Structure formats: structure tokens, C-alpha cells
Amino acid sequence: MRKWNVSGWILRVLKVFRMNADELKAFQDRLIERRRELIDEGDFLIEPSKRDAVAKLDEDEAPHTENAQVIASRRNRERAREIAGIEKALRRIELEPDEYGLCQECDEEIGQKRLELMPWVEFCVSCQSKIDDPQKNYRRRHAADYL
């Protein structure tokens, strides 16, 4: 459930408009184009370790194949995550055009440069950093800490 920041809402009401229709349409077009590119690329191939069920695994090639599988799998997950973000942004533009470009956490505007680079983002830099690193005061443990 979304938390509403009253001060952000008041600021939004006081600003008659933030993003004009042409800017919104430009972001929508960029999102649609990026989604098309990602879908056209297709999944990255994950090569099997063995080509034949009865063939012996090549011990020299196995680590390289496993590494390639991990990389391809990670790229496929990131691609799927980006497509999902694009879909959410397109829905937001369609259903709540006034909400597009506002942080989903604090209701402040997402920076123009950030939106230009990643038009599917939902959070401003400040809120995204809190989400990415919730333990900001985390410090690395040393062996002496356990003595």
C-alpha cells in the first residue's frame, strides 16, 4: 500500500503542472521502444554443460560453461526485471499520468536526468539508496569482533 506524503501532495497541487503532455508522450515512446528492443533481443542462451547425455564432461570446459550459464541467467533475470519496470511505468502513464515522474515513496520529483536514463524508475535517488542499502550503518566484521 502506498504511503501518502501530505507535503508532497500539497506541493504537487500548488504546481499547476510538472510534466507537459509532449514530455509524457516522449517518455512513453521511449519506454515502448525499449520494451520492443528487449523483447526482440530474446533470452540469452544458456548452453548445457554436456552436449550429449552419454558424453563425458570436459573438466577444462566445465568451469567456463558454468560461468557462461550464470552470466546468461543473470542477464535474463535483469532483462525480465527491466521489462516488468517498463510495464509498470507504462501503466502509470496511462492510468495516473500526474503520478509519473514522482517517487513512489516520498512523492518528490524524480530527477530529469535519472528519468532520461531509466524512464522506468519508481524512486528518487535518495529513496532508492535507502531501499538498496537499508543498513546504512553496516560495518564490515573483522576476526577480532568474534573474540
From TrEMBL:
Domain of life of the organism encoding this protein: Bacteria
Keyword Glycosyltransferase assigned: no
Positions annotated as zinc finger (dksA C4-type): 103-127
Alphabetical UniProt keywords: Metal-binding, Zinc, Zinc-finger
MF terms (GO), sorted A to Z: zinc ion binding
Domain Zinc finger DksA/TraR C4-type: 100-131
Protein name: TraR/DksA family transcriptional regulator
